[in-house]
Target: Holliday junction branch migration complex subunit RuvA
Amino acid sequence: MISSVRGEVLSVGLDHAVIEVGGVGLAVQATPGTLATLRRGSQAQLHTALVVREDSLTLFGFADADSRELFGLLQTVSGIGPRLALAALAVLEPEKLRIALSEGNITMLTQVPGIGRKGAERLIIELRDKVAALASDDGGPGPAEAGSGAVRADVVDALVGLGFSAKQAEQAVDKVAGDVPDDTSRMLRAALAVLGRKK
Model:
């Protein structure tokens, strides 16, 4: 899993940007809002999600980790692929999307091209509790224990993708979760440092 990219912006298109990382130009699909923050020739850092298909590898970029988490969460619903998930984030900001899901606002969700009433109802049924759990400040696990479940899962997935076993990855994340901010890139760096010391 490629969790972030940082480098010079080589070009900005209508639906993607090309960012040079280590001499390689990576095409990153993104929302118009994210693309509007990028300038050709300037340095940029994006949180990313790599979507693997039989015939393609597509990198999706986001201005913040919250958007990336929602992007992944949306795709857990049947019928919602990466393009539709990105469209949802293009139309609705992360906070508005969370509110629409948690409050069951079908009207707001159907503003997204490709999501009809039935699709909106399915999103609400499947994601309402998950969104509430992520956003809840009480009744759930504390900050150190939660490490926002989605952030912890992202870091574990990234470590497994780098060749560590699931057990090693989970132990490393458990060790650093209470000591670092609830941010994927920082938690990943801290976990890698722990795993590096074990070698």
